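[audit] Reproducing an earlier prediction to check determinism. Same input, same settings, fresh worker. If the tokens differ from the archived copy the diff job will pick it up downstream; this log only records the rerun itself.
[audit] input (484 residues):
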Amino acid sequence: AAYDSTGWGGGPLEEAQERLRLARKRLERAQKNLNRAEKRELEADIRASEAAAKAQRLRNEARSAEDQAHHHRLQQVQHTNDASLAEQKERHNKDRASECLSGAQRAEEEARSYSKRASKAEAFAKAYDNDVRRFDEEARDADRKAQDAYERAARARAEGNSAAELLAANEAKFYDDAADLADKSKATFRSAAKTARDKASYFRDEAERATRRAEYLKDEAKRYLAEAIAAAKDASDFHEQARLAKGQKLEFKNLASRLRNEARDCDAETDRYDDEAARAAKNADDLAEEVDAAEDVLATEEEQWRAWGEDWRAGGQERRAWDEDWRAWGEDWRAGGQERRAWDEDWRAWGEDWRAGGEERRAGGEERRAGGQERRAGGEERRAGGQERRAGGQERRAGGERLPDYYATLGVEPGASNDEIRVAYRTAMRQHHPDKVQQAGGDEKAVEAAKVKTQQINAAWQVLSDERKRAEYDRLRQRSRGFG
């Protein structure tokens, strides 16, 4: 029991204590809700960061898969080209083999022709040899008959028969002329036989050379056919390798597409978690306002409690005067009055402590209000971060703006040296300078186009002439190829 303004009673004190207790309970409940909201916001931020990291990892894997697909596409093109070259080599070797077989057939026909002509020449030589033997017999027969005629002429001269002698002498002369003619014919046919045998030997040699040439061409035809078979096998192997490379290219291309779809899903998940974090941040802000309102209610209750304490102290003065009137009741009652005064002193000391605690509570309220402002500022930062993450997700899904091809602008390869880039830059500027276009009779559109072209050339030169800028551009260019 405690005193009220009229005497003993518990109404105002208990009501104030109950209101203060309820205010503290609401403050604790609001603080717990705020902590849960901030925890949900933190968890949503962590999930969004994990989803964004996973999306980036999937994009990197997709770029790696696209690089593998590009590598296998180059292998497919290379194997296809090798197969085409092998097929060309096969056709070439087959054509050469056909030519060699045709040449071998022609050489065999020539060999048969030369053999026939050699046989014919040998037949002529044999006939001429027969004629030589025939004329040789005729010459010997004419010589024998001439010898007989000479013997008859000698007998006729010995007998003195001049007519018989003249007849025998003429006959001897006739057979001598016949023998000479037979010798001449024999020499002629012997020479003809030698010529025929020479021709036959020549034709035999030509036939042998034609036969050797036919054998050589047949061997060449076999070699070309073997090379054609090997080239056909190589072409088949290259086609198989090209087919495998095409399958691997499609496999990595599908893998890259699947990874990019998963990355887009992660982007959507990131956006969802960002939205969840934003909602949690808004809920945290609302709960922070609720905490501030609860702290204001608590401060109001504490003010009312301090005012009631002042009223209680004023009532204490009246009670002390009333206690003086009651001291006449006796020493026992005065002893009780001493105890009540001691209790009043304790109550005043508790009131002082309560006022000091009120100051601390007000300072705590100020700190809580400052913390609410910090939480609201943090909520704004979280919402801004969510917007940045959503913008980053949209940028990641869009794949970024396509970079200009500075190497193509200067007409050089990506691996060109600094000297090559410098020479290409000077050449391009001399070729596309607006003054040169105007001097060449170009119209205004051509001059404007030249100005745009020189701006592009200068932009390319500014990037490619600086090693650091060029390295950064190559990295972005590689990423742009990956997104493409």
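[audit] rerun output stored. Observation attached for the diff report: The helical segments are 11-159, 162-326, 331-398, 406-410, 418-432, 434-439, 444-464, 467-483.
[audit] end
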